[in-house]
Write a structure and sequence with these properties.
The protein contains 41 helices and 59 strands. By secondary structure, the chain is of the alpha/beta class. β22, α13 and β23 form a beta-alpha-beta unit.
Length: 1536
């Protein structure tokens, strides 16, 4: 078994209602296929069913089993949950999935390739190595002579032979019309011998072992020869007039046309202008006239579709007289006459649905007169309906006339047709559509046989094909009029087989064909499905199942003519077709031929190295690319003999299976007809003369050239030359490059095609020079098609012979200077890493090919090898082509993982992230790609995000790749920004610089793929180092958890200027540095950015509220305890007026204008104590106070210090006492939009309720803090959401804190039991326990909106517009605002769940889910509210008060961070309501979060945005990644 990092794993993401049945997924044996859940299915109970057999079981198409889910990280989410298949069996396998009550909500197929083996040692023959040659079996002669004739394929370098069917042929002698599917053609046995399948199998086995050649043959399921004995004994196996009576009208027409044939052949229509020898347009018009005047009137086809009016009316009259009423169960009370088609298709056999007649024609009374009126109405309608049928049949007859004439034109007049000559019984006017086994008689006598089933069962429909028909429809079944309209291009020697829906419908036929299939699969390595597009899919499926049971690694090929890749995929998927036949002859010029090479295989030269575990992507079917198929016109007739070699070379350079048909290489100048050809193939005779009939050798045709090309094709596939580049040098010259991504060797084949005959077409004499990058090692081959004086072509009577006038001149494996096609080769150097050879040609005449083997120049080859050697530390896939470095540079002596193990998470912030403004602080910036855009981050993530989109699609044309090819700027940027740092970061920079030193000296076209390889290795090593520094929750977490945890690295960093005020000098584990500005020693604590890119640097980086909403998720849950402690203490030092600043501004520019930040800070201290081992110690930590009093100037560190518990006490005491102050520097200097009253800040505890209340209508002290900015709309200086009074989340946060200090005090861990305050001039002592219980008692009375008009607690029943919710605030200056539905109550539910009655809480959460929950965020306001507006546009300035300059920031747009609290609240209260509710809630939570996971994965910022517009639409004014958005989602996963 392969080690996990080497095993190829493909991941298929399942999405609800996604049907992939027309999408092709190709896989190899040994691969693992994982099914994972897309965002639409995460959280649901999904079951995946497949018919891929369990280990040791045999495949049964209808036996599905359920796959078991694996969740490697356990519980929290479904991002890594997968079920898998270990693929060890070839074939087509189906999967489908469902959830809940839906059994199937999507599905598709996978196709697993067979493994083919050849030789005595059974070595693997890769599919792309295949070179196949087709033989018409009947032209091989006796079996004893086959080795000599088949040796031509071996000596021409083919490794697979395709035989047309080897069974007994029908009387037409067509290779595909078989008289007996079970017997070997007796013509293969000499007199006195009778060879069997066993003898043939022995030859096939000998070819496999001794010649390294596999053999495949056709299976023909659609038809059998008309003279097959078994079809006469079992006519039910075909479409006859008994089992398919719908064909009776078509049979009548067919017989009439036959009688027309006999009359024309006998000259009886010559007088009407229709002679037996049809030669011109007049004769064609005469055919039409005769059909319309004589044939159609005589046979009256319309009668098969009409009603006998008088009989129907009489039946109706009787019913009316008897007073019969319609059966309402049948007519459903609907009016409208229905005609029932006679299933036996007799003349006037159609009948009237009498219930519909009685419903439609109702007499006014039962009087005879009214009954007659009714009957007359019915009669009139029936005559009209018969007329409609007549018109439909008239249209069928028009099409039949067109098709008959079209057939005559092709068969008798067209230049490319068979020119059949005069009409005769042997060559009738058109091919008969049905067998006719009786002696000749008149048409009238034949018509009488329609009443004799014993005769009719032997009139069988022939097979054929229908132009532009739907290949998924059977044209012989009821509902199709192909036979009646004469649209079938008919094979008059073959009877179409009728399988029905399954073996029960035609047991003999199914058994017979299964036996035929098993014989074939037993003796051959593969099969070609003849006429595959017309074979009923369910039949082919069943037969191939039988074939694979006999030979599991069966090679299956087919040629499809569906005209649609999607429909091709239906056949490939359901049948497990390995290769689809494609043909170079379909190309009209060399440019198109080159395009086909590029289309059918390989990846571009310089493609990226793909990870072993990657998404399963749709593919096109594996191609078997043939220069010509055996049943198509000869290329020499359509192009020129000189084109045979170069077009064959273009095909041979394709990265797929290739091949040809016998005769092509010998330059046979005509099509070898599968019907008429009876001559034998030539034998192999090494010493044969060039014109010897019946013998072939290397001098015959282009065989010598084909041998070299086939060997080259196999070598390229075997040695991993999987990259392809096609260059259209000029109108006739195509250069195809095959490149090995591990050794970087290339083979470049330059092919000068000759689509037009040089005798009639002037080819230019000068050939443009070629520029080939690298060092030409040798000329692999050079071949020219040349004329020789061996006479001209004369068709031999006994042997299939080619044109003796052409052969090839060939040289192989010669030095460049010995080439006769290259005039000169000069080396031109393009920079230090590009050696380019300029090739000037001579004698590269039409019909020539030259192939060069090219390596990198020796120095570049050495450096690539060394680079691959250092890359093996990341993956063993770089071992091939690697060269050990004997002189390791110092920077590379230690593995990168060892260097990175010394990095801190702050270092990793620099290595991985840092947006433009963060980087600009240090004098740099993010890299800008000319003509494209600037990278999101200066660190590795900026590039990795772009490469993640570029790599899977090998988008080498991307501007990033162009920039890398053009110069070293980006390469130097990546390493230089780190080298200038200190310590381990500089070492990482030096490691990268040393790797890049090799990179810079290799050819530029290879730089993108190796740059990516270095970066991916560095990035994954950095991620490993990151997670090792985090908590076990992260280390053992899912991909989703890890991605969110990266947000901690993204947001937490140290800038050029310290963002935090210093913590006490007595604290341990505080990082110091020499200031990059002053050179003095200073603290360099990590600070937390609110969001990128808007809040990343300078005084706007740190905000109290944002920091402490995000701190639990991004720092405590990730295990960054010391850094979290330092942030808590740094902010503690800035406490002033009992508040924590919102905008921190390093403490010196702080604004104390928010009422909630202090409560979030207190909540974080509680969370710190809860999560951190010995967390209680933080309470005794010293805090260095910046503002010991409200009015003091900033103090120096250490000047005034207090324990943290004293600072906490101060915050609580100040609130109880009441806070009221005016902001310092009030006015435009600190806020250019705020009105004067807004600078007045107040907060207090309401003595009635215990709620923390405050603010006024001119400021906004909570997170919903949008201040109006528009003069035009007159909202400037007005807060959109003042939320004054008691905001619900502040009530919850304060309750949480007070409850906590009460508990701490009880345990002796907090020295204060309450606070002393002055009230009404007296000192009053208030206990925290009393405050705690006061809030508990007041909360639901104040906040619950019952909606009951009689509720005594409801002060404003007139303002209630949503019931069963919690108010957003209590005591707002505008009472309406209290009653607005917003998501803030869910925060209170999480931090202080004890305030809520579970049943009420659940009700409110259900309302929030219905009204507020969006795809990624929560609507910030009820969409039913009159000021709701869901699209935030901060640039819009208009007259709309509610919208201008983004006034609606919190009035509808969907913010992400409240989703975390909403889901956590749901989980908490669901647990209280029982197991079933909890299970359903977990499903909801996973499903909601799956969208965040998808966003996070796809985001170039690797983050979650601040907000979206309504219904999850992108908002360009949002931060692309926001700390609290990431943190609160991570908290949900922690709760799970």
């Amino acid at each position: 078994m392969l080690p996990q990092h080497m095993k190829q794993i493909r991941v298929l993401l399942l999405n609800d209602k996604e049907n992939l049945e027309r999408t092709l997924f190709r896989l190899e044996q040994g691969f693992e296929l994982q099914f994972r859940l897309g965002s639409s299915l995460q959280g649901r109970r999904v079951t995946v069913h497949t018919n891929y057999p369990a280990s040791g079981q045999r495949f049964q198409r209808d036996a599905f089993r359920v796959l078991e889910w694996n969740n490697p990280t356990g519980r929290e989410d479904d991002s890594d949950k997968f079920c898998f298949l270990d693929l060890k069996t070839a074939g087509s396998f189906q999967f489908y999935f469902g959830h809940g009550n839906t059994n199937r909500s999507g599905g598709g197929y996978i196709v697993v390739d067979p493994v083919l083996r050849v030789g005595a040692d059974d070595h693997v023959l890769p599919l792309d190595c295949i070179t196949i040659q087709t033989y018409l079996s009947k032209c091989l002669g006796r079996l004893d002579d086959w080795p000599d004739r088949l040796r031509v394929a071996k000596e021409s370098g083919y490794n697979m032979v395709h035989f047309t069917p080897l069974q007994t042929l029908g009387e037409s002698r067509s290779c595909y019309s078989l008289a007996d599917q079970l017997s070997l053609n007796p013509e293969f046995s000499p007199k006195g011998r009778s060879y069997s399948w066993k003898d043939l199998g022995a030859l096939v086995e000998r070819m496999k072992k001794e010649w390294n050649m596999l053999c495949i043959t056709d299976v023909v399921y659609n038809h059998t020869a008309a003279n097959s004995l078994w079809i006469k004994q079992h006519p039910e196996c075909g479409y006859n007039l008994v089992n398919s009576p719908h064909l009776r009208p078509a049979w009548v027409l067919d017989r009439a046309i036959w009688h027309l044939t006999t009359r024309v052949a006998d000259g009886r229509y010559a007088a009407k202008g229709l002679p037996a020898d049809i030669t011109n347009e007049t004769h064609l018009n005469a055919i039409r006239s005769v059909l319309w005047q004589d044939v159609y009137p005589q046979i009256r086809l319309w009668e098969f579709f009409q009603v006998n009016v008088s009989n129907a009316v009489e039946q109706f009259r009787v019913l009316l007289k008897e007073g019969t009423k319609p059966d309402r169960n049948k007519s459903a009370g609907k009016k409208g006459l229905k005609i029932i088609q006679d299933t036996s298709y007799r003349r006037y056999g159609n009948t009237v649905d009498m219930d519909s007649a009685l419903e439609t024609f109702v007499p006014r009374s039962s009087s005879p007169q009214h009954i007659e009126e009714c009957c007359d109405s019915l009669k009139q309608r029936l005559n009209e309906m018969n007329g409609e049928q007549y018109h439909i049949v008239h249209q069928h007859q028009e099409q039949a006339a067109n098709c008959i004439v079209g057939n005559v034109v092709y068969e008798r007049l067209a230049d490319h047709g068979p020119k059949l000559g005069p009409v005769s019984r042997k060559n009738p006017l058109v091919t008969r559509y049905f067998t006719f086994t009786c002696e000749e008689m008149t048409l009238e006598q034949e018509m009488q046989m329609l009443d004799r089933p014993e005769k009719m069962r032997h009139f069988l429909a022939h097979n054929g094909w229908v132009m532009a028909d739907d290949p998924l429809r059977n044209f012989a079944e009821p509902g199709s009029n192909v036979y009646l309209r004469r649209e079938l291009i008919c094979w008059g020697d073959s009877v179409k087989l009728r399988y029905g829906d399954g073996p029960q419908d035609c047991p003999y036929l199914w058994a017979h064909m299964q036996k035929y299939t098993e014989i074939t699969a037993k003796h051959f390595h593969g099969i070609r499905l003849d006429n595959c597009h017309s074979t009923p899919l369910h039949v082919a499926e069943a037969m191939l199942d039988a074939a694979r049971a006999a030979r599991p690694n069966l090679y299956v090929i087919a040629e499809l003519f569906t005209g649609s890749e999607l429909i091709d995929n239906v056949f490939v998927n359901r049948l497990g077709i390995t290769s689809l036949i494609r043909e170079a002859m379909s190309a009209g010029d060399s440019h198109e031929e080159g395009r086909l090479v590029y289309r059918y295989g390989g990846e571009p030269v310089g493609a990226f190295v793909q990870p072993s575990l990657r998404p399963l992507v749709p593919s096109i079917a594996h191609a078997m690319f043939l220069d010509i198929t055996h049943d198509n016109e000869c290329p020499i007739q359509l192009r020129s003999a000189l084109d045979s070699l170069p077009s064959s070379a273009v095909v041979s350079m394709a990265c797929c299976a290739t091949g040809s048909t016998r005769g092509y290489d010998e330059l046979v100048p005509h099509q070898i007809s599968v019907v008429k050809e009876e001559r034998l193939y030539a034998r192999w005779s090494p010493a044969a003369a060039s014109s010897a009939a019946g013998e072939a050798c290397t001098q015959t045709g282009i065989i010598a050239g084909k041998l070299a090309l086939n060997h080259l094709h196999q070598e390229l596939a075997e040695h991993g030359f999987i990259q392809v580049y096609v260059d259209q040098v000029d109108a006739d010259i195509v250069a195809v490059t095959r490149h090995s991504p591990s050794t970087h060797q290339s083979v470049v084949a330059v092919c000068r095609t000759a689509f037009w005959n040089p005798k009639t077409h002037q080819y230019p004499s000068n050939v443009p020079p070629m520029f080939i990058p690298g060092k030409i090692e040798e000329v692999v081959l050079e071949v020219r098609t040349v004329e020789r004086g061996a006479g001209s072509y004369k068709k031999d009577d006994s042997y299939i012979n080619g044109m003796p006038e052409y052969t090839v001149e060939i040289q192989e494996h010669i030095p460049l200077e010995e080439s006769s096609l290259v005039k000169q080769a000069g080396v031109t150097s393009k920079g230090r890493s590009e050696f380019v050879q300029e090739i000037t040609f001579q004698k590269l005449t039409p019909g020539s090919v030259i192939a060069f083997r090219v390596s990198l120049d020796p120095q570049a080859q050495q450096l690539v090898g060394v680079l691959r050697y250092y890359l093996t530390q990341f993956s063993p896939k770089y071992r091939k082509g690697s060269i050990t470095d004997t002189n390791t540079p110092p920077a590379l002596q230690k593995p990168l993982a060892h260097i990175m193990s010394k990095l801190t998470l702050a270092d990793l912030n620099i290595l991985l992230f840092r947006c433009d403004s963060e980087e600009q602080e240090d004098g740099g910036g993010c890299y800008s790609i000319p003509g494209w855009e600037t990278l999101k981050y200066a660190g590795l993530q900026g590039l990795i995000s772009v490469l993640a989109d570029v790599r899977p699609n090998n988008d080498l044309g991307h501007p990033l790749c162009g920039n890398l090819r053009q110069g070293d700027w980006l390469i130097d940027y990546v390493s230089n920004r780190l080298i200038h740092r200190e310590g381990p970061l500089a070492q990482v920079g030096q490691w990268l610089a040393a790797m890049f030193d090799y990179l810079k000296h290799i050819p530029r076209y290879l730089i993108p793929c190796y740059f990516d390889a270095i970066l991916v290795g560095t990035y994954t090593t950095a991620l490993d180092a990151t997670y090792k520094l985090m908590s076990s929750f992260i280390q053992n977490g899912s991909s989703f958890v890890c991605l969110l945890a990266l947000g901690s690295v993204q947001m937490c960093g140290v800038g050029r200027f310290p963002a935090l005020p210093p913590v006490s000098l007595d604290m341990d584990d505080v990082p110091y540095r020499l200031s990059p500005v002053s050179g003095q020693k200073e603290q360099c604590c990590v600070s937390l950015s609110a969001g990128l890119p808007h809040f990343s640097a300078g005084i706007f980086r740190c905000w109290g509220r944002d920091t402490f909403i995000a701190l639990r998720g991004l720092m405590l849950l990730t295990g960054r305890y010391t850094e979290a402690r330092n942030i808590i203490l740094a902010f503690a030092g800035t406490l002033r007026h009992g508040l924590i600043p919102n905008l921190l501004g390093e403490g010196r520019c702080a604004r104390y204008n928010c009422r909630d930040a202090v409560w979030w800070w207190l909540q974080c201290i509680q969370d710190y104590v809860t999560h951190v081992p010995q967390g209680l110690e933080i309470l005794r930590c010293p805090v260095t106070r910046m503002y010991p009093t409200d009015d003091s100037e900033p103090c120096k560190p250490g000047e005034v210090e207090q324990h943290l518990y004293d600072v906490i006490q101060e915050a609580l005491q100040r609130h109880l006492a009441g806070i009221s102050f005016r902001e310092r520097n009030a006015g435009a200097k600190i806020d250019m939009n705020m009105r004067d009253e807004g600078f007045n800040v107040s907060a207090m505890v309401d003595p009635e309720t215990g709620f923390v209340t405050g603010g006024n209508r001119f400021n906004c002290g909570t997170w919903m803090d949008k201040m109006g900015e528009s003069d035009r709309a007159r909202n400037k200086g007005m807060p959109a959401t003042p939320r004054d009074g008691a905001a619900v989340e502040i009530v919850g946060l304060s309750k949480s804190t007070v409850r906590w200090v009460v508990e701490l005090h009880k345990k002796g861990l907090f020295p204060y039991s309450g606070a002393k305050i002055h009230r009404d001039g007296k000192e009053v002592s208030i206990s925290y326990a009393q405050w705690n219980s006061q809030m508990q008692q007041s909360f639901e009375a104040g906040f619950w909106v019952s909606g009951d008009p009689e509720d005594p607690k409801e002060k404003h029943p007139d303002l209630v517009h949503k019931k069963g919710i919690y108010k957003d605030s209590y005591g707002a200056s505008s009472p309406w605002c209290d009653y607005q539905l917003r998501p803030n109550f869910t925060i209170a539910m999480v931090v202080a769940p004890e305030l809520f009655t579970p049943e009420r809480a659940w009700k409110a959460l259900e309302v929030a889910q219905t009204k507020l929950l969006g795809p990624l965020g929560m609507k910030t306001l009820d969409p039913d509210d009159m000021v709701y507006s869901g699209v935030y546009d901060n640039a819009l300035d208009n007259d709309n008060y509610n919208l201008a300059r983004g006034f609606n920031y919190h009035q509808g747009p969907e913010w992400l961070w409240p989703v975390g609290y909403f889901l956590r609240a749901k989980l908490y209260f669901a647990k209280k309501l029982g197991e079933e509710t909890y299970t359903q809630t977990v499903t909801l939570v996973k499903n909601v979060l799956s969208k965040h996971y998808t966003h996070l994965e796809r985001s170039q910022w690797k983050g979650l945005p601040e907000l979206t517009n309504e219904n999850g639409q992108y908002c360009p004014f949002s931060c692309e990644t926001q700390a609290w958005s990431l943190a609160t989602v991570l908290e949900v996963l922690h709760d799970l």
